[in-house]
Write a structure and sequence with these properties.
- By secondary structure, this protein is of the alpha/beta class.
- The chain folds into 2 domains: 8-114 and 149-216, Glutaconate Coenzyme A-transferase; 118-145, no CATH class.
- It contains 7 helices and 11 strands.
- The protein has helices spanning 8-12, 34-43, 63-67, 83-90, 101-113, 176-180, 234-244, and strands at residues 21-24, 48-51, 71-76, 95-98, 117-120, 134-137, 140-146, 150-161, 166-167, 183-194, 213-216.
- Strands 1, 2, 3, 4, 8, 9, 10 and 11 form an 8-stranded mixed β-sheet that branches. The protein has a 3-stranded antiparallel β-sheet with strand order 5-7-6.
- β2, α3 (63-67) and β3 (71-76) form a beta-alpha-beta unit.
- The longest helix is centred in the middle third of the chain and has 13 residues, at 101-113.
- Keywords: Transferase.
- This is CoA transferase subunit A.
- GO terms for molecular function: CoA-transferase activity.
């Protein structure tokens, strides 16, 4: 139980500092470590560089840290669902390093694998490649991208055991596994905590060696849905069609 902490504040105690680089897992609001993000907000640390596919929405996820101006720079691939994110960027109040999504994922994976840089064709001839080294391989031009290794990674998992082994659920897996490997300290929030040996070894996505601290999400933990798209029930659709006839 040495890795399990009572709450997010305790799990991040002694880890947070101004100016640090943080990997934050998730995609939109799917699989985000919201409890840990809220604890970072409450800590008051500032001048953060945050690596995340996007910044959630205005009132949830990393949007909370944007609202309090604790983030100095975002390394991301998408800003479309967060109006404050776009506003700060366009006003010159927030530094953004844009990456194609696959490049961002590979930069994080490379950081975790100890690969300092790699070459990719994605972005060649665009603003993405400005100021970066390029090299030709087999008649094609590639741009060099640096791996990213953070001071802290915060991730969300569906299940974990007390040794830190993690399992992610469906699309909430997204950026979480690669970020968990690419930081000096990884802190995970899990929905279900079990004893060692209760997770089949073949089902583990993140081995416990990468996870330093953990918290258990409280009962009733709310996983918000960013956009809910549903189709009408057949009976309702038929009734609507009849009313138009």
């Amino acid at each position: 139980m040495g890795k399990v902490y009572p709450d997010a504040k305790a799990a991040l105690a002694g880890v947070l500092r101004d100016g640090m680089v943080i990997h934050s897992g998730g995609f939109g609001l799917c699989g985000i470590p919201s409890l840990l993000i809220e604890a970072i907000r409450e800590s008051g640390v500032k001048d953060l560089t945050v690596v995340s596919n996007n910044a959630g929405i205005d009132d949830a996820g990393l949007g909370l840290l944007l609202k309090t101006r604790q983030i100095r720079k975002m390394i991301s691939s998408y800003v479309g669902e967060n109006a404050e994110f776009a506003r700060q960027y366009l006003a010159g109040e927030l530094e953004i390093e844009f990456n194609p999504q696959g490049t961002l994922a590979e930069r994080i994976r490379a950081g975790g694998a100890g690969i300092p840089a790699f070459f990719t064709r994605t972005g060649v001839g665009t603003d993405v490649a400005k100021g970066k080294e390029t090299r030709d391989f087999d008649g094609e031009t590639y741009v060099m991208e640096r791996g990213i290794f953070a001071d802290l990674a915060i991730v969300h998992a569906y299940k974990g055991d007390t040794e830190g082994n993690l399992v992610y659920r469906k699309t909430a897996r997204n950026f979480n596994p690669m970020m968990a490997t690419a930081a000096k300290v990884t802190v995970a929030q899990v929905e279900h905590l079990v004893r060692p040996g209760e997770i089949d070894a073949d089902h583990i996505h993140t081995p416990g060696i990468f996870v330093k601290r953990m918290i258990l999400c409280p009962p009733g933990y709310d996983k918000r849905i960013e956009q809910r798209t549903v189709r009408k029930h057949p009976a309702a659709a038929a009734a609507g069609a009849e009313s138009l006839a």
